[in-house]
Amino acid sequence: MAQFLQQMVNGLSIGSVYALMAVGYSLVYSVMNFSNFAHGGVIMFGAYFGFYAITLLKLPFPAAFVLAFVGTAVLAVLIERIAYKPLRERKAPFLYFIISAMGASIFLENIIIATIGPTFRTYPDVFGRTSIALGPVSIGRLDLIMFAVSAVCLTGLVLFVEKTKMGRAIQASAYNMKAAALMGVNTDRVVMIVFALGGLLAGIAGVFFGMKYTVYPQIGNITTKSFVAAVFGGLGSLPGAVLGSVLLGIIETLVAGYLSSQFRDLIAFVILIGVLVFRPTGIMGKTTEDKA
Amino acid sequence: MLSGINLIAVLGLSLLTGFAGLFSFGHAGFMAIGAYAAAYCTRTLHLPFLVGILAGGAFAAGSSWLIGRATLKLKGDYFCIATLGFGEAIRLILDNFQGLGGARGMPGIPQDTTIWNVLILDVIGVILLANIVRSRHGRNMIAVREEELAAQVAGINTFKYKMIALIISAAYAGVAGGLLAHYMTFINPKMFSMTKSTELTIIVIFGGLGSISGSVLGAFVLTFLPELLRAVDKWRLVVYGLAVIGIMIGRPRGLMGGFELTPSSMRKYIAELKSARSAKAAQKAEDATPGKDGL
Predict the structure, then answer these.
(1) Between chains, do B78 and A276 touch, taking CB under 8 Å as contact?
(2) What is the residue range of A73's domain?
């Protein structure tokens, strides 16, 4: 029982980081209707921003953290301006968006390999290794902070989308971009805000991911799992993305704990295919109507 | 040599992406299936090389039928996600399945791939694909790409044509995988990661969506270029990434699109590859009535 609880705690903490990444995919999908594969590259940049802010600039952790997520928010908006905006204006088919996103993701990954190199880097120890004991379960400080920050950010995001005027503009654009534009919503700005929000959360997730594991250029590939989580929960739905991520995190740690860690990655993709075959809209995704 | 092998996989992907308008992230998965099936046939069952290659193609096509049945009904984006999951799942299964060598790979495959049988298969592949594209089936695929709903209304069974495109393209990838296995004499699951899939897609995009000649050119240039530019190798993919975005923004039809003067001259290019004589005829046709040749 103690082991089970321990696994649940680990699953929750990794699931919360997946959630930060997955909402980025979901936000963009809900408004633009395509999967932004460059998101993994943005997450990876977040990890590097944080790493160099701490080691090179010798910034204290909170400042480095802010620098990292502001940096990735700017980066995400830049990618949108350069790689997607011209396509958006031309009303290009979604195939071109995906190809462009793929190009951006290849570029981001390899610019790091070419300039910094493919070596693995480890974050300096910021929070200490001691863990907090809660009865039979022990929680690492990093895990606790990861979970708390993720929860705060996700709550903040939901409040933003539900309560503010901009949030309602995002909802309207997600429902129908053209109609929203006719009603006076500046859809161009909505898209920018969506990318900025996704990039911001990507930066936070990148820093945590880098701290929990290591920093290397292919982190973006691991983040495909957060994308799986977004599909699992239902692309385009924020609560779905969070739920899918937490479930995926828990399932993964349980599989790794009770079966074998080798099957951990496999299970993610088996879930992905299973969801796509039996329930493509995910747990709580919006019904995909034919937009042809 | 390697470009010839790549070309076969690229041709298949070109049919799927360029002509049927489906985007696949999982083609390396089909290549892996082809490579392992072919290698198993020749290495363990001691079957002839040709049987192995064909088995590779058949296995890849069979698995594509399964995956297609399950996922082709999905809208574009979801199909592409499904192929991503499929490709990764294949790699991870091979990684963990000890019967085929697991993560250590499969050594000692006979080196049967020669420049000649690659060339022959390349030529067969190009001619076959050109004929498919120009047939009624090929035109139906293009119709599906251009406007799925309209194609459906016009009485085209869109699911069937997407499936045909997927199966043919997977068979090409499987054959390419088989050739690769018998060229390298050693295969492991890492060779068929997502990077391989994206590389193939890049070649198709560079060559130009919906252009066979473009894919041929793309496969040769993009496989040769890195050999010449070894010194700046690490910048290669950086440039590729930028170039892909640039192509999408500036010239979504790909590089070969720049060579065509009239929409119909792409057909002349294919004719040109098939024989110099028919190319001349097409040129004459263009001189006489621009835009109305052959068909």
Answers:
(1) yes
(2) 2-118+137-278
Contact criterion met (CB below 8 Å) for A252 and A14: yes
- DSSP bridge partners of A132: A139
Contacts B77 to A, Cβ<8 Å = 29, 33-35, 94, 98, 235
Q: Please tell me the predicted confidence (pLDDT) of residue B225.
A: 73
**Cα R_g (chain B), whole angstroms:** 19
Residue B136 inside a domain? The answer is: yes
pLDDT in tens, A28-50: 888 887 878 888 889 999 989 98
Mark yes or no for CB contact A100/B235 under 8 Å.
Answer: no
Q: Compute the average pLDDT of residues B25-49.
A: 86
Q: Is residue B221 part of a domain?
A: no
**A-B contacts at Cβ under 8 angstroms:** 130
Candidates B145, B149, B245, B255: best to mutate against A (most CBs of A within 10 A) is B245
pLDDT, average across residues B67-90: 78
Q: How far apart are CA B33 and CA B55, in angstroms?
A: 10
Domain boundary among B178, B193, B208: B193
The answer to whether A81 and B249 are in contact (CB under 8 A) is no
d(CA A149, CA A63): 15
What pLDDT shows up at residue B272?
58
The answer to the question of residue B103 being in a domain is yes
Tell me, what's the pLDDT at B122? 85
Give the ranges where A164-237 is alpha helix by DSSP (H): 165-175, 177-182, 187-212, 219-222, 224-233
Question: Domain for residue B202, yes or no?
Answer: no
Chain B CB contacts of A227 under 8 Å are: 81
Indicate yes or no: CB of B81 within 8 angstroms of CB of A35. Answer: yes
Task: Report the share of chain B in percent with pLDDT over 90.
Answer: 3
Range B129-148 average pLDDT: 81
Tokens found for residue B122 = 């390349």
**Total of domains in chain A:** 1
In terms of domains, do B132 and B34 share one? yes
A86 touches chain B (CB under 8 A): yes
For residue A279, pLDDT beyond 50? yes
Cβ within 8 Å, pair A276-B242: no
Q: Report in angstroms the alpha-carbon separations of A157 from A28, A219, A228.
A: 14, 24, 21
For the ranges A9-13, A204-208, B50-54, B237-241, which has the lowest average pLDDT? B237-241
Q: With contacts defined as CB-CB under 8 Å, which chain A residues touch B235?
A: 110, 114
**Residue A124 domain-assigned?**
no
Structure confidence by residue, pLDDT tens digits, B48-72: 888 888 888 899 999 989 888 877 7
Domain span at B267 = 260-288
With CB atoms and an 8 Å threshold, state whether A100 touches B244: yes
Task: List the structure tokens of A227.
Answer: 């994308």
Tokens describing residue A121: 């880097």
Chain B within 8 Å of A98 (Cβ-Cβ)?
A: yes
Q: Do residues B52 and B182 share a domain?
A: yes
Is B80 in Cβ contact with A288 (below 8 Å)?
Answer: no
Q: Do A111 and B238 touch (CB under 8 A)?
A: yes
CATH code where residue A248 lies: 1.10.3470.10
Last residue of a domain, one of B146, B163, B193: B193
